[in-house]
Design brief:
The protein is α+β, with helices and mostly antiparallel strands. It has four helices and four strands, in the order αααββαββ. A four-stranded antiparallel sheet has the order 1-2-4-3.
């Protein structure tokens, strides 16, 4: 049985110390390199996303600038066209822009009356009476209600065309009845006849029409903000 005392630990050699130091330095370098690589990847990804975002912003700004430039040019043309349209010596109906006859009035007002932006039943009755009286017809009745086409007058980006039905009965001779129908068809305000009936004789005919006209709500142009993602 060997009972000799254990030998004390041998001191590490200088070579082993250098190896340990080199290993520690290598590990530190690997750790530092890993940190740099991870940071570079994260930073590179962030920069790439920022670059893509900035490209989208620049693209949208260029498109907006083009639209603004085109709109500015179109405004100038529109103003010029409007002045020519409103300043003619004869209106679209062949009447005087400054007169008060059934065919008179300035062109912008005639166009607004042709397709008004609001439901105005009294105005419709007034215009129908003007048409009838200018032709020398006798009005028996003009029907319709205040609420027939109301309720859809709010301005919006998509204007709504609303029907306004009305019946009208007049008395005229045969030729007058024909002229009245022709007058309605030639009216600056669109009138669509849905039903027609005649009673009487050639000298005195009672003409009853069921018809409808229209109005269209105002169109709005909204300036919007677009979020670039």
């Amino acid at each position: 049985m060997n009972t000799s005392p254990k030998k004390p630990n041998q001191p590490r050699s200088k070579k082993h110390a250098l190896i340990d130091k080199a290993n520690a330095t290598t590990m530190a370098a690997i750790a530092a390199t890993s940190v740099v690589v991870v940071f570079s990847l994260v930073a590179g990804r962030s920069l790439l996303r920022q670059y893509s975002y900035q490209n989208q912003v620049i693209k949208q700004k260029k498109l907006t600038l083009m639209q603004v430039t085109d709109s500015s040019k179109n405004v100038t043309k529109l103003v010029s066209s409007y002045k020519a349209f409103a300043g003619g010596s004869v209106n679209v109906l062949g009447g005087s822009p400054t007169g008060t006859g059934p065919l008179d009035g300035d062109n912008p007002r005639i166009v607004l009356d042709a397709l008004p932006s609001k439901y105005d039943f009294p105005g419709l009755i007034s215009s129908l009476e003007k048409l009838v009286s200018s032709g020398g017809y006798a009005i028996n009745s003009i029907g319709g209600t205040e609420e027939a086409g109301a309720g859809l007058e709010l301005p919006g980006p998509n204007p709504v065309l609303v029907e306004v039905p009305f019946p009208i009965t007049i008395t005229a001779d045969y030729g007058g009845a024909q002229r009245f129908i022709t007058t309605l068809e030639a009216s600056i305000r669109p009138v669509y006849i849905t039903n027609l009936s005649l009673t009487g004789n050639d000298a005195s005919i009672q003409l009853t029409l069921k018809a409808k006209t229209f109005y269209q709500s105002e169109k709005t142009f909204d300036v919007t903000n677009e979020v670039v993602k």
